[in-house]
Hints:
Low-confidence stretches: none
Radius of gyration: 23 Å
Number of helices: 9
Distance between the termini: 49 Å
Helix content: 55-70%
Strand content: under 5%
Number of strands: 0
Amino acid sequence: MEDKADSLIDRIDTAALLARCKKEYSGVAQLGIEALELKIKGCSGADIARLYHTEPNHVGAWISRAKAKLLFRRDRSNQREAQILALSKQALLSTAELVKCAEADVSGLSTDQKVMAALYNDDFTTCDNIRWEMMQAESREDVTLAVANLYLRKQIIFERLG
């Protein structure tokens, strides 16, 4: 039962990815993505060829082109990732500090004074408790996901201090 559920979830995830990517391409690549969507639904190459009034080998070429485009597709940073990347270029910050900056919509950390004002501007927050405070923040998941994506794309690195 679990295998069927996992298979269904995988197909749904793949279909959602293809639907998003289809908007980014045109021509043969877009036809290939449409063909991949139909294959996920169980259509054969011959079925797809009949639907598009073409030869099955054309459908195979479309799919090959779409796979190549998708394979070498560079993910675009979203707004949160761009914010995190910009902040990380200005100061060495922990993920908890990045969450705090996101919560306060901070964009400029060009000096040590701006860093301290953005992160430790109240009587409660210290370097020892900021991680616990930020575990309650609304943007913690967005920021953590952005940090993970940037790390996986090798746009940021982690440094161990101390």
